[in-house]
Amino acid sequence: MMPLAKVAAALVLFNKPTNTLAMSTSKKISVTCYVGQKKLNAAIESFASQSSASPSSPPPPLSIEWKPYIIDPNTKTDGEEFEAYNIRRWGSSGWTHGLKRSGSKVGANFSNWKTWPNTLRAHQLIAYVTSTKRKVENKPTTSECNAAIFDAMYECGENVSLVDTLVKIGTERLGVSASEVDDLKLHLENNVGAKDVMKEIQTGRRRYQIQGVPFFVIGAVDGETSLGQPYGFSGAQDSSTFVDIFEELAGNLA
Questions:
Q1: What is the mean pLDDT of residues 237-244?
Q2: 124: which of 132, 172, 208, 248 lies 20 to 30 Å off by Cα?
């Protein structure tokens, strides 16, 4: 049974065997979403390990889908130098110190953050590699795409605004084949899919009143039928918060 897809941020779905707990999260690429994804992943591991301790009650299947969001669409197309952007916009990069301390506790170390990117092309890369039109095996999930882009941007010092950088991420991390490279490069250079990305962002804003990210929608579903009211909330919550919600919603699948 396929999980229900929602538009917003991360979409998480749990299943029974025929039911699912679903979660949608926005956005795909932002500094706070990097920490949020790490905390979400830790929560999923914790929930799975707790559930597996009871063989008679296996954990419900969980599906996660990340949707696009752009914090500052006025960022220069090819990105901006990290410190210069922070000084221009906020007067300094001091606000990132607490973020880095928080992130270091969950493995988001920000060890080589050099650029404030314009993420539109990165969203286009994710749409390309996850597209149903690609007839390839082992396509990456949106979670895997996020992780690859976050690592390249925050830990490896890459500028994910640039076409060549994104093609490199696609080929080295996301399974883009040599025969697809020219097509992907044209896709990014010609802004193919950019309107679809922006439309999806606007849909999420209208439907869930998203004004900041990460934003999470978590619910239990049976096919395309919601089982109860889903949770919607923003911020890189502690892992324990996610686990509490998972446990409550999993009860709806009993």
A1: 86
A2: 208
Q: Residue 51 has what pLDDT?
A: 63
State how far the Cα of 23 lies from the Cα of 116, in Å rounded to an integer. 28
Q: Is the pLDDT of residue 137 over 90?
A: no
Q: pTM, whole model, 2 decimals?
A: 0.82
Across the range 227-252, mean pLDDT stands at: 81
Q: Which residues contact 120 (CB under 8 A, 6 or more apart)?
A: 70, 73, 191, 194, 197, 198
Q: Which residue has the higher pLDDT, 82 or 203?
A: 82
Q: What is the pLDDT of residues 86-115, one digit of tens each?
A: 999 999 999 999 989 989 999 999 999 999
Cα angle for residues 88, 89, 95 (degrees, 5° grid): 115
Rounded to whole angstroms, the Cα distance separating 235 from 232 reads 11
Determine contact, residues 34/150, Cβ cutoff 8 Å: yes
Angstrom distance (rounded) from CA 79 to CA 81: 7
Nearest to 114 by CA among 31, 36, 214: 31
Cα separation values, 54 from 23, 44, 59, 141, 242, Å: 23, 16, 9, 28, 20
Q: Among 126, 106, 3, which Cα is nearest to 66's?
A: 126
Could you tell me which of 33, 89, 94, 98 has the C-alpha nearest to residue 66? 33
Phi, psi of 95 (to 5 degrees): -65, -20
